[in-house]
Specification:
Helices cover 31% and strands 29% of the residues. The protein has 72 residues and is of the alpha+beta class. The protein has a three-stranded antiparallel sheet with strand order 1-3-2, covered by helices on one side.
Length: 72
């Protein structure tokens, strides 16, 4: 929520997640991205979406959301 409040109206926040713990896999990356997307939606971001970048050893996900131009 703090990032949402600091972002200018119509600004976009992009958060990237790539799990690096022992045994991490692509499903972990997607689950982490889904958690971030949920938190961003709860914080008031609009149009939240997840993009996956195939990487080695584990995929990376980028979660993007936009702060509405209207007053919050």
């Amino acid at each position: 929520r703090g990032l949402h409040d600091r972002l200018r109206p119509d600004g976009t926040l992009a958060l990237t997640y790539q799990p690096r713990h022992a045994g991490a896999n692509d499903a972990d990356a997607r689950e982490g991205g889904a958690r971030l997307a949920s938190l961003m939606s709860e914080a008031g971001f609009d149009g939240v979406r997840i993009e996956v970048l195939p990487m080695a050893p584990v995929d990376a996900v980028c979660v993007l959301g936009r702060r509405s131009g209207r007053s919050a």
